[in-house]
Design goal:
The protein has about 120 residues and is of the alpha/beta class. Helix content is about 35%, strand content about 20%. The protein has a 5-stranded parallel beta sheet. β3, α3 and β4 (about 90) form a beta-alpha-beta unit. The radius of gyration is 14 Å and the shape is globular. The N and C termini lie far apart (about 35 Å).
Length: about 120
């Protein structure tokens, strides 16, 4: 692609579920994704939960040195429904605001299994 500059992806939003069922293949893929994001110094944007696949990706990315932005609805955070947030936390009033902030802070998107909300 001589003469053209490819846009470099600096931040990726990952959509995935909080389901705690442990499918070994999904867990392995989630951990691997987090490690790859960290290795490539890609900023992870996610829905602010440490449960299920969300937890595996965010923890692996954070431990690997990636910056992590957790965008969570205030009501969920206050109820401690999502357990511990990984990385920087941004609270928003509604689920719609959450989606918009995730879109605004990301260059690219990945959808992993288990997230019914991904269909939004």
């Amino acid at each position: 692609m001589e003469g053209k500059s490819a846009r470099q992806v600096k931040s990726i939003c990952v959509f995935y579920g909080t389901n705690s069922r442990k499918n070994a293949k999904f867990v392995k893929a989630a951990n691997n994704l987090g490690r790859v994001l960290a290795k490539r110094k890609i900023y992870l944007v996610y829905g602010g939960c440490s449960l299920g696949l969300m937890g595996y990706v965010s923890i692996a990315a954070y431990v690997g040195g990636s910056q992590v932005l957790s965008i969570i609805q205030t009501a969920l955070a206050e109820e401690n429904f999502t357990r511990k947030t990984i990385g920087e936390e941004l609270r928003v009033p509604t689920m719609q605001d959450r989606i918009w902030k995730m879109l605004d802070n990301s260059d690219a998107f990945i959808a992993l299994p288990c997230g019914i909300g991904t269909l939004e």
